[in-house]
Write the structure tokens for this entry.
Amino acid sequence: SQQGEEDPQALSIQEGENATMNCSYKTSINNLQWYRQNSGRGLVHLILIRSNEREKHSGRLRVTLDTSKKSSSLLITASRAADTASYFCATDARQGGSEKLVFGKGTKLTVNP
Amino acid sequence: KAGVTQTPRYLIKTRGQQVTLSCSPISGHRSVSWYQQTPGQGLQFLFEYFSETQRNKGNFPGRFSGRQFSNSRSEMNVSTLELGDSALYLCASSFLGLAGGFITDTQYFGPGTRLTVL
């Protein structure tokens, strides 16, 4: 099963509005990262938040992490049409002696002009 | 710095064939990870190479293999292709990679190789 699960699966908003996406995970983590993917292309790293951090900002992005609830949220303020993309959270996981990065299924964000 | 490059960008193969995908990491990065992305399963970790050694491995059959060269370039091979192998294959490079369960290193992704198996 997925370590990270994004919610909602799809989100449609108007330009200028804020967009909030949530991510829940199952096991303890060291770090959580958010990525953006434009249709069928590579992923772009947005922000990394460590398990001992509660909030982080980068430009119009704000990420929060609640390790007690095993959840994170990504807020994009004053959205633009160019923000239209899929957003993924990724958490580190250890399985069978291997480290790996586990991605959720993503939230597809559409920002209408 | 040039970004991560992947070749080819698109590939069409038939069942039973084999395929080799290539990834050139950002200069100075020693870790290359590979991921498979499909609509049904999402993004799944295949394996990670660090300094020419496979350091981490996901849950994929032995038909999926890889290697890394001394210049950190990596190749991924899929033998005996199946229809279900149709996917976007992404590689990502970083300096430290997936080390010791404390991933602080940003992974930089390439544009991907779109593989279609007919």
